[in-house]
Amino acid sequence: MDKQRDIFETWFARWRGVRTPAEEAAVLAFADAYDRAIESGNLQPEQLNEVVAAASSSRALLWKNAVDLLARLAVRWEAALDAVETMFASKQSQVRFAAICCLRADTPVIVANRLLLQGLTDKSSRVRWMAAQKASDFDRKELLPHLEAAFSIENNAKARRSIDFHLRLLRDGYIVENSTPAGYYFTVRIKDGIVSRYVTDEAMKTNGIDAIAAEMRRN
Asked: What's the rounded mean pLDDT across residues 113-136?
């Protein structure tokens, strides 16, 4: 398996996005910490702290890349999982948002569901819609009543649209919306996420929703 440092260095060599030398060095530093933990099979506190600090950063280049590594650590070591919970207790909404982003389908369910439930009623609309998205991504149908309750009281337009979308996808497994020319925009859940495509009115009448959804999942 490639080292995370090598992956980031290759990315930096190709990526033309804006970053400072300090940011690039910080990314490689938490990548090194992650690599050392994985190679040794023993997560040291200083290694965890390096990754957590980056995941908690307000700098997008850091947190957007560090949350994935912290998420991987959290399914392997309890200390990393505890760190995600500690992040979610932060007074800073960005840190709570990053903590929700650290959740994966294989994060221990008892912890993930607890954070998702809290996230649905968080003060931050970003945290609320991300919690709804994760609940849908993980197919947590047991959380449906809580998504419905969250949607019923949501007053932020973006969060309301997102919660509605993920609520319908979780509940029904698909979303069908009118589209032009005469037809429908069809979204279904698949193993690795969701897929969408345009479906003509004729195809909808001929095949029906269930058959179209099944065919999209197969392909």
From this structure: 97
